[in-house]
């Protein structure tokens, strides 16, 4: 037999197998043929694999969006990755903002308060940009790559073996159908007994191949539990990378805040006139409360004179609230603009605070939020 004859026979056999599977599949869909069901354990493993693949893809894609919000940049990185080339290095958003601030600060003059502050802010933004770049690189290596390897590697192998199992099942059920028909024909004396024997042998062979493929598929699917354990370790690495990133950003901003707080209290404006508004250094845990407490500056002289009277007496005064104020903790009293409360001083209290009472409610209130009434 030459090679051409062999290839022709192989093609004919493959075509016959394909046709047999197609007929069996169609008849199953039409309810005209019986179907061998997989055991419950294997079905559960298949369902778990599909669920893992679905959610891994979603988590992976959304993580990519989180790390790189710009869709055009993601497409560019994808193209360069497929071309096996390194994407050109570009400034990220914090780095670009930082460079603009530095350039503006140099333009306005590093010797001015505003120019100096811009430069310091720009340097901090660039450090945050560098930390952001490190987060992306670390997350890509320790988190995204393992997830992508599962989708493009392990799950593709599972899909291939599952498809092969499906074909083996169709072959088995087609052989069972032929055996059933042969037995019916034998009963009617339409064929010889050896035809039935041949069909029975075919069923045994296809059953053996199906069982072997089912075992291979089962072993692969049981590896999903190991995949989950591996992805858990990768998730811990991702969380640690995020924790490092946010800790760096917090420290950078804390250092910047201290630097800005150490500036002279005179800010140079565009017309070189000065303003005597101090820059307050705010402790991080109470940034919002302390910052809001430092905003109002109306009636400071009135408050100061009224405070002196309260300090020298044990009495109380009525005061109108100028602005809403949310208490930072249980020792403070929340305020609503335009309400009238009773205020008084107690020994040892900070000069910027008074005790306030509203009915049965009592707590510290910032004096800059009050207008003492006559």
Description:
This protein has 374 residues and is an alpha+beta fold. It has 9 helices and 7 strands. The protein has helices at residues 3-29, 40-67, 71-82, 93-108, 113-187, 193-222, 224-261, 287-293, 300-312, and strands at 267-268, 274-275, 317-321, 340-344, 353-358, 361-366, 370-372. The protein is 66% helix and 8% strand. It is elongated. Strand 5 (353-358) and strand 6 (361-366) form a beta hairpin. The longest helix is centred in the middle third of the chain and has 75 residues, at 113-187. A 5-stranded antiparallel beta sheet has the order 6-5-4-3-7, covered by helices on one side. Residues 265-303 have low confidence and may be disordered.
Annotation keywords:
374 residues, alpha+beta, five-stranded antiparallel β-sheet, two-stranded antiparallel ribbon, 9 helices, elongated
Helix content: 55-70%
Order of helices and strands: HHHHHHHEEHHEEEEE
Strand percentage lies at: 5-15%
State the end-to-end distance. 119 Å
Please work out how many helical segments DSSP would assign.
9
Mean pLDDT: 82
Can you tell me the overall shape? elongated
How many DSSP E strands? Answer: 7
Largest sheet, if any? 5 strands, antiparallel
Radius of gyration: 39 Å
Q: What order do the strands of the largest sheet run in, or round the barrel if closed?
A: 6-5-4-3-7
> Low-confidence segments, ≥5 residues, pLDDT <50?
265-303
Structural class: alpha+beta
């Amino acid at each position: 037999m030459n090679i051409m004859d062999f290839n022709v026979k192989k093609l004919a056999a493959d075509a016959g197998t394909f046709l047999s599977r197609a007929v069996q599949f169609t008849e199953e869909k039409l309810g005209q043929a019986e179907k061998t069901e997989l055991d419950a354990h294997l079905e559960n493993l298949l369902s778990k694999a599909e669920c893992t693949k679905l959610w891994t893809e979603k988590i992976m894609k959304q993580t990519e969006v989180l790390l790189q919000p710009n869709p055009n940049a993601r497409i560019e990185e994808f193209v360069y990755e497929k071309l096996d080339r390194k994407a050109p290095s570009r400034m990220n958003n914090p780095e670009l903002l930082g460079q603009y601030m530095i350039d503006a600060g140099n333009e306005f003059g590093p010797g001015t308060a505003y120019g100096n502050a811009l430069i310091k802010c720009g340097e901090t933004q660039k450090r945050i940009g560098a930390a952001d770049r490190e987060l992306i690189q670390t997350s890509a290596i320790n988190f995204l790559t393992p997830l992508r390897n599962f989708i493009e590697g392990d799950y593709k192998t599972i899909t291939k073996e599952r498809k092969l199992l499906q074909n083996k099942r169709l072959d088995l059920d087609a052989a069972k159908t032929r055996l059933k028909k042969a037995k019916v024909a034998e009963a009617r004396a339409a064929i010889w007994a050896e035809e039935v024997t041949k069909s029975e042998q075919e069923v045994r062979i296809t059953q053996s191949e199906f069982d072997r493929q089912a075992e291979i598929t089962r072993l692969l699917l049981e590896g999903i539990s190991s995949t989950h354990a591996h992805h858990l370790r990768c998730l811990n690495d991702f969380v640690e990378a995020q924790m490092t990133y946010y800790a760096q950003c917090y420290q950078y901003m804390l250092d910047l805040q201290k630097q800005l707080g150490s500036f002279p209290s005179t800010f140079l404006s565009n017309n070189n006139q000065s303003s005597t508004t101090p820059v307050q250094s705010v402790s991080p845990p109470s940034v919002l409360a302390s910052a809001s407490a430092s905003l109002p500056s109306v009636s400071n002289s009135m408050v100061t004179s009224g405070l002196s009277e309260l300090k020298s007496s044990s009495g109380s005064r009525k005061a109108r609230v100028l602005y809403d104020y949310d208490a930072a903790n249980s020792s403070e009293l929340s305020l609503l603009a335009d309400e009238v409360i009773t205020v008084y001083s107690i020994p040892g209290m900070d000069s910027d605070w008074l005790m306030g009472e509203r009915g049965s409610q009592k707590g510290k209130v910032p004096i800059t939020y009050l207008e003492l009434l006559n």
